[in-house]
Structures are given as structure tokens and as C-alpha cells.
Amino acid sequence: MNETKYDDLIVKQFFTATVVWGVVGMLVGVILALQLAWFPANLQIPYLTFGRLRPLHTNAVIFAFGGNLIFTGIYYSMQRLLKTRMFNDGLSRFHFWGWQLIIVSAAITFPLGMTQSKEYAELIWPIDIAITVVWVVFAVNFFGTIAIRKVQHLYVAIWFYMSFVLTIAVLHIVNSLAVPATWFRSYPIYAGLVDGLVQWWYGHNAVGFFLTTPFLGLMYYFLPKAADRPIYSYRLSIVHFWALIFLYIWAGPHHLLFSALPEWAQTLGMVFSVILLAPSWGGMLNGLLTLKGAWHKLRSDPVIKFMVVAVSFYGMSTFEGPMMSIRAVNGLAHYTNWVIGHVHSGALGWNGMIGFAMLYWLLPRLWNKPIWRPGWVTSHFWLGTIGIVLYTVAMWAAGLTEGVQWRALNEVGQLKYPVFLDVVRMLRPFYWMRLVGGTMFLAGAIMMMINFFKTIGGPDSAAETASTPQAA
Amino acid sequence: MSENSFHRRFFEGKAAIFAIAMTVSVLIGGLVEILPMFTAKLGPERADWVSPYTPLEVAGRDIYIREGCYHCHSQMIRPMRAEVLRYGEWTRAAEYAYDHPFLLGSRRIGPDLQRIGGKYPDAWHYEHMRDPRSTSPGSVMPAYPWLLEWKVDAEDITKSVRALSRAGVPYSESDIAGVGASMQAQARGIVQSLAGSGINIDWDREIVALTAYLQRLGVEGRRALADRGSTP
Ligand code: HEM
Ligand code: HEM
What we know:
The complex is a heterodimer.
Chain A: H1 9-37, H2 50-81, H3 89-109, H4 125-147, H5 156-176, E1 178-182, E2 185-188, H6 192-209, H7 213-227, H8 234-248, H9 263-275, H10 277-291, H11 295-300, H12 302-325, H13 327-333, H14 337-367, H15 374-407, H16 420-426, H17 428-457, H18 461-465
Antiparallel strand pairs in A: 1-2
Helix pairs in contact in A: 1-2, 1-3, 1-17, 2-3, 2-7, 2-14, 3-4, 4-5, 5-6, 5-7, 5-8, 7-10, 7-14, 8-10, 9-12, 10-12, 12-14, 12-15, 14-15, 14-17, 15-16, 15-17
Chain B: H1 6-12, H2 15-34, H3 55-66, H4 81-87, H5 122-130, H6 132-135, H7 154-166, H8 173-177, H9 179-196, H10 206-216, H11 219-227
Bound molecules: protoporphyrin IX containing FE (2 copies).
One protoporphyrin IX containing FE (HEM) binds at residues 119, 207, 211-212, 251, 254-255, 273, 276-277, 280, 317-318, 321-322, 324-325, 330, 333-334, 339, 342-343, 346-347, 350-351 of chain A.
């Protein structure tokens, strides 16, 4: 196949956006971490307080870093898997610029306090409409490309991408239905716990279909490429794919355990969450076992290093999640920093690390240039890994401390720590430790950004390896 | 699995069928869980002792949302001994009947606020929002001094109340027409109570609206549940 027929410009655009927004989103995360450890960092400026910056962080890392990353991988791999150029270059461009515009509007509206308050769906209603439009354009381009494919069978990565495109559309529309009051304010059509259930049906499946299935698709394409080995088991991929997408949807109520949501719904949420362990581990095992036989690369190839850590953290957080869905465990974990530890073991460990692996694998191939500082890739790996460990360990310790002390009773059945602030004060060292871990993770991402810009500004691979300048 | 397996022929070769099968599998769970919520029997319990937020409380709630208070404060007391001791009666579904959006929160960086109403005097809230450390040493909460200066706008809140009524909250046309008067009347009460603590402030400052909202949280539930004795 002639490589030039693929549209790689769109891949490069999304790639660049990923690198830049990643640093921005993580920087905001570090600012939040600082604000919790040291409140004066709120600066008494309305636009920069924790409450207004937090949705900026979550939206930037999930939709700007994660989203652009997914699109980078999809546009690169689907053209190659289907052996065709994208359906329509105009739609690709519209998708790219539309998505960046949405991100910029998020960065403006959140500090101004414009929010719908539903987690990961905070953007105000006009932006919600823009998201819908851009998503439909992307979906048309995506399915159009499938329609004009030159390969009959769809590879497993494509299945996962498909479930992402379809499910996110449904989730976004249903959860965003609201009555506008002004251009900047609206109220959902649902009330109380029904609104809560719809939101967590959305929220949990944002995890499932934004942070999990497309990333599994990326894993199924890039991991065998990097390891130079075929996928371990095709049969396993079929079984865990269908089980995963079917089961994920039911698990939302594990965010509402012990609330006054009807008992039957809470129980369904808990049971399905526990079962979800199986298909999640199916994906992890298929990834890890594919690497079996490529272990020798683990020492030399930092891309493989990133992948091993990523898939392991995926396994870890999808073990932790089902455990936290068990009522008794959730009673302890809910509301605490433990949940934040869980979030970031998934987000930094799985999404971050598999993302970095993909970017470093693509960089020299897309631009046809050698990486400016190969050693920095390995440094990034270690900074990231140690950063995650510090982050999650600090949050587990903080979460257990809170969880246990909030509920502790003395001999006469009264609260042992009746003053809430006593517990808050006890968390300070953990918040500082998280700040150190998060800063290391950010430092790694900044090294990647520098390495990226230096690489693409540097000389071509061909020019370097060939003794004479390239003729054609 | 063979090159010619069912999955291969039926799904991987036929993208449209694959996409439809996928959509159906993804829709089932949501439909089964969400649709029954709109029925009286399987959905959240309702009660006649909850009333909609007053216009001033709506204004306060808008501020609570704008500042992102729910990122640090939950509004859901779980039915556990320690929670009931710390925060009061556990939260009933009916108490959220008019909550568009719901504000349960998922974190407790600060304490739960579902029954904060009536726990402290108005002046406490004023001081706490101005400088959290003045009432709560060691707190990590940001200070919100601008709430003491920024103004609420009756016309703007009329739009909120109208939109809420469209979303299903039972406000009458006369409620909507009387938003300004209602806000002012309720705010006067808070202004007077603040004056009693030596704090002088105009009725239309955001802190007054926010205080009105906070001071009503959980109060109706506490009263109703105390009357009937506290059985789940
Ligand atoms: C430098 C790296 C990062 C740092 C220092 C950081 C820090 C933080 C902090 C301080 C919070 C607020 C926690 C709280 O409310 O107590 C937070 C929330 C969150 N972060 Fe990050 N973050 C980082 C990277 C990421 C990445 C890469 C992702 C996703 C891909 C992510 C996803 C989230 C999510 C989803 C939440 C909300 C969690 C919840 O509501 O329970 N973060 N982060
Ligand atoms: C089998 C898989 C998983 C299950 C069953 C699961 C379960 C849970 C549970 C029980 C909570 C705590 C809810 C609470 O008490 O507030 C939670 C929170 C969360 N999980 Fe997972 N988890 C899984 C995998 C993941 C993965 C892989 C990620 C990230 C990539 C992730 C991201 C999150 C986020 C962002 C939250 C915080 C939501 C919020 O409160 O804002 N989860 N999860």
C-alpha cells in the first residue's frame, strides 16, 4: 500500500493538540492539588478558586487530552486498518477545529462560573449543542470511512472505536436535556435522584466509553505493532468486547450507593459492577499476554515500558473499582480521597501511560524524524511511574484516614472525632505528597512536549542515516 | 477461532448490523434502570412536606452552582449511625423533589450540607464566606469576599424561576410575576438578623441569597421526620 494516500496531516494536528492540552490540563490538576494543600493558592480571585478550576481540569484532561489522543489514534489506525483514506477531508478538518473551539470555550466559561454542575457534563447548553454537531460530523466521517473500506473484516480495534462513537452520542444527548434560562444557564429536565441516576449513567459510562473502550481500541492496534506480535487471543477479544459494552451501562448506580435511590437500582449497579471485573481483566490479559515473548524489548524499548505499566494499571483500577462497588466497601470509600486515588490510578496509569506510549511510537513514524532526546523518553517513563505511585499511595492513605475517622465511635457510642476539621487538618501531609507525585507526572509530560517540538523541528530520519542528502 | 466464524461473517463483515447490535446491547441497561424511575411504584419516593425553593433560594442555589461548592460538599446523609450523629436524619428521596440539577456531590473535602439549615446563625455564614478561617480554623475552603459585594438581579432570577417551572417545578404565573417582591421580602429578614449581629448589608447582595439557600437546606425534612418519629 502506498502510504501517501492516507491523510496524516489530520493525525499530526490531533497529535499536537494532545501534547499541548495534556500539559495544560495536568497543570490545572497540579494547581488544584496545591490549593487543597495550601488554601492561599486560591488567590482570592473569583475566577481561580478550586470550585471553578476543578471542572476545567477534569474536562481538559478527559476531553482535551484524552479526546485529542483518541482521535489521533483513530485517524491514524483506522485509515491503515481499512486501507483507505478518511471518507472526507473536510469533515476531518471540521472535526479538528470544532473540537479545539469547544475546548477553548470550556477554558473561558468555567473560570467565569458558567456550569451545569453535572460532573464531566458541566459545559453550558450552547456548547453542548456544539459538541453534538461536531460529534455527528465525526460519526459521519467515521462510518463513511467504514463504508468505503477496502478490507472486508473489521479488526477488533474498530469495534471498540465504534462503541465509543455510538455510545458517547447517546449518553451526551440524554444527559444534557435541559431547559435554558439564559444563554449561560439551564436546568435539567430531570429532578433529584432521577437526575442523579441519569448523570451517573452518563458519568460512569464516560469512564466506560471515553476512558476505556477507545483506549482498548488503541491498545489493540498499537500494542501488537510495538511488540511486533499478533494479538494473543481473537476469541477472548470477542467475548470481552461484548460483555464489556453490555455490562458497563448497568454499573452507574454504584455512584449512588446508600443514597435514597430505590434499593433495586442500587443493587443492580453493585452486582453489574462486580461482574464487570471479568471482561475488564479479559482486556488486560489479552494485552499482557500479547507482550509475552516481547519481554526482551521491555529493557530497551521505552514504548513497551509505558505499555506494560499502562495495562497493569488498567487491571489494577478495574479490580479496585468493582471492590469499591460492594456496598460495605463503598460505605468506607465514598466521599473520600480513596475515590480520587482510584480515579488517578486509572487516569494517569492507564489513560496517561498508554497515551504516552502511542505518542512516542507515532512521533518518529509520522514526521519521519528521529526523536530528539531518546533518553528523555525513559526519564519521562520513570517520572510518570513514580509520580503515579506517590499520587495513589497518598490518596489511599488519606482516604482510609478519613473513612475510618468519620465513622469511628467511642465506648459510649458517640463520634470519636466529632470535629470535622480535625480530620481535614490530618490530611495535609497527604495532600503535599500528592502534589509532589502530580508535579512529577506533569514534569514528564512537559519533557514530552519539549521533546516533541524539538523533534518535529529537527532533521529528517533519512537525511541523518543517509550519507548524502536525499534526492527525491 | 476459524477464519469463517459466525462473528467474523455476521458482524465484522457487515458494519451496519454490527453497529445496530452494539447500540442495542448498550441501550438495554440504561432503559431498564432509568425508565422505571418515572413510575410512582419503582421510582424515588415523593412526599407532601417538601416545597419548591423560593426565588431568593433559587438565586442562592445558582450561586452555589456557579462557585462549584458541590465539588467539596455533599448533600446526602447516608443511613449509618455515624452519619446521623454527625449530620442529622439521613436524607430521604422526597427532599430532592425540586432539585434541578441534583447536587448530591461525590466528595467531602468539607462536611455534608444537606441539613445545614438552622445549624448556625446567619451571621456565621456571613463571616464564614468572607473568611472561612475566622469561624473554622484550619479550613481549606477558599474565601469568597466578592459575595459581599456582588448583587443579585431580580430580572435574572425571574428567568431562572420561569425555566424551572418549565422543567416541572410548580411555580404559578403569579409566583413568577412576584419574584422581585418575594426576594426582597425574604432578604429583609436576613438583613435584619445580620444587623442584630452588627453586620450592615444591602438586601440584594449575593451573600444574602446564598444564606437563604443554606438556611433552608434539610429543614423541612428535619421537621417532618421529627413529627412522625424517625423510622426509615
Ligand atoms: C499532573 C497530573 C494530575 C494532577 C496533579 C491531578 C490532580 C487532581 C486534583 C487535585 C483533583 C481534585 C481532587 C479532589 O476533588 O479532591 C483531580 C480530580 C480529577 N482528575 Fe486529576 N490530576 C492529574 C491528572 C489527571 C488526568 C491525566 C486525568 C484524566 C485523564 C484526571 C482526571 C481527573 C478526574 C476525572 C477528577 C475528578 C474525580 C472525581 O470527581 O472523583 N486527572 N485531579
Ligand atoms: C470495572 C471497572 C470499574 C468499576 C466497577 C469502577 C467503580 C467505581 C466506583 C465504585 C467508584 C466510586 C464511586 C463513589 O463512591 O463515589 C468509582 C469512581 C470513579 N472511577 Fe471507577 N471503576 C472502574 C474502572 C475505572 C477506570 C478504568 C477509570 C479511569 C480510567 C475509572 C474512573 C473513575 C472516576 C473518574 C471516578 C470518580 C467519579 C466521581 O465521583 O466523579 N474507573 N469507580
